[in-house]
Amino acid sequence: xKRDDDDMRIRKEFAIDIDRLGVDWEQQRASIDRRRRMAPxxxxxxxxxxxxxxxxxxxxxxxxSWPSSDRVPTVAVESESITVEQLFSNSYSTYIxxxxxxxxxxxxxxxxxxxIEFIVPGEGAEEAL
Amino acid sequence: MQIKEVxxxxxxxxxxxxxxxxxxxxxxxxxIFAAALVVSGSVxxxxxxxxxxxxxxxxxxxxxxxxxxxxxWLVRTAxxxxxxxxxxxxxxAWFGAAxxxxxxxxxxxxxxxxxxxxxxxxxxxxVWQQARLSDRERLVVQLRAGEEMTFAEIAHALSMSVSSAxxxxxxxxxxxxxxxxxxxxxxxDETR
Lengths: 129, 192
Hints:
The complex is a heterodimer of chains A (129) and B (192). With 129 residues, chain A is of the alpha+beta class. Chain A contains six helices and three strands. Chain B is mainly α. Chain B is built from nine helices and no strands. The A-B interface holds A 6-7, 10-11, 13-23, 25, 28-29, 31-33, 35-36, 39, 42, 45 and B 21-22, 25-26, 29-30, 33-34, 37-38, 43, 47, 50-51, 54-55, 58-59, 62, 108, 110-111, 113-114, 116-118, 120-121, 124, 127-128, 141-142, 144-147, 172-173, 176-177, 180.
């Protein structure tokens, strides 16, 4: 009995009386309805995420399938002269810069054993002759 | 009977029945608001949190495993949302951009009765503070005494056992009674 009295007292003294706060329940309900209608439908909610993932995958595939010769050259001729062995070795087979080359080192039998000299780089190399 | 009704309402709402949605909101909005208010300490923020809880429910209604417990799900969601916002407010306050819950109360144009009710609410928050009630104790006090929920309902809504809910209630009652004694003694000392 005493416990019930205590409960009643707490109810009166120590709990917030929500009805006295002026909350407009109808307006709240209308706001919920409005927000609910504005929220994306659940099954379409992940469409942007799926689209972003697809774009990412396509970008990765694109990068990997891009011909390596079009990428930034991995090997450049740094010295003015390279040997034939170097030219046809793996390290130089990926990128040969445009330009004028001079072959020095043909022997009497017409075999080439010398070096290829890189004279003029890029377009206009013929005029430079 | 009521439990069966709730699961039926949830099923209909999940199927896009507008009337069921209205019924669902009407049935639970008050207790969700009460729980949010206890944690946030602001009528305006509790209103926002209540709306947010229902919007979140819309996103999850098809996957809720226990439709009968949708009320508890909503209360838990609202309490978590209110806690997140309170944390964010504290961080903002820490950086000097404070918005105290009391500020937005004052800006509301309200009738004298409503203002009195809100002042009373602020006084109660002070009392809870002085009595050092934890969040859970405040929630139990409000849901039990203010919303007249059973201990079983409170336990379910706050993810605790029934005995824990009762323990929180008893502790809160003891603390509040102790505060009342202290205040009464203080008043008596002053009048002497």
